[in-house]
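Lecture notes, continued. The same structure-token format from the folding unit now serves as the input rather than the output. Read the line below as a description of shape only.
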């Protein structure tokens, strides 16, 4: 998968968890992320099940920390490893491309500040839509979001995808893995619930201010997205 993402051969030396593992690795809050030590490369894979403001800062902070650690290794700066972060992200805003390629560079000339720090972000939602339309170029990533029915269509004529499919099916049949993913889903839905509560409270405050200005409740409903029944309660 890494070779297909980076379009180059990768000689893997070691695969680590990027965090200190808790005693119960399936506890809520554990992230399904990986740190790969390859020949002349350090590769961090971040799996982002949903986008939120600040997520990119968080991920950049992590890869920045790893880059700083690489600075300290070795006897000169020219021998530093290439440091790479690959993000697989769901729920990105519409302005984001299928594949974002980010690195420190001048905005006018494109001259790179450093040549060994690269960040890639794959927009899994776009990749999945392309797969549905018949474009199989990124099938090796779309498979990360496949259900059992979709998995049955994978593997024809591609040895890599056939093997990948077997491994994903094996994971899906692993009870502990399914429980881990359920915990992740629960955390995501809980976070979304708190966001929605905040949005509704803000909408109520706006509605109350508009009621004071004698605005028609139908117009208030259109502006805030609140149901008429809820706005009527605010009038009381």
């Amino acid at each position: 998968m890494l070779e297909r993402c980076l379009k180059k051969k990768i000689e893997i030396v070691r695969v680590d968890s990027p965090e200190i593992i808790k005693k119960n690795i399936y506890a809520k809050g554990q992230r399904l992320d990986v740190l790969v030590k390859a020949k002349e490369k350090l590769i961090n894979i971040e799996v982002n099940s949903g986008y939120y403001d600040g997520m990119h800062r968080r991920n950049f902070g992590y890869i920045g920390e790893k880059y700083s650690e690489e600075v300290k290794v070795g006897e000169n700066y020219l021998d530093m490893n290439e440091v790479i972060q690959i993000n697989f992200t769901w729920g990105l805003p519409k302005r984001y491309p299928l594949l974002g390629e980010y690195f420190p560079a001048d905005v006018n000339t494109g001259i790179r500040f450093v040549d060994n720090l690269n960040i890639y972000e794959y927009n899994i939602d776009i990749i999945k839509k392309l797969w549905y339309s018949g474009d199989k170029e990124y099938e090796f990533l779309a498979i990360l979001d496949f259900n059992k029915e979709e998995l049955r269509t994978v593997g024809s004529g591609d040895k890599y995808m056939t093997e990948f499919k077997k491994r994903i099916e094996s994971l899906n049949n692993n009870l502990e893995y399914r429980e881990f993913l359920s915990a992740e889903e629960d955390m995501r839905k809980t976070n979304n619930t708190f966001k929605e509560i905040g949005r509704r409270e803000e909408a109520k405050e706006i509605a109350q201010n508009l009621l004071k200005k004698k605005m028609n409740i139908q117009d208030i409903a259109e502006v805030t997205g609140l149901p008429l029944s809820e706005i009527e309660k605010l009038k009381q």
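Point for the exam: DSSP finds nine helices and six strands in the chain.
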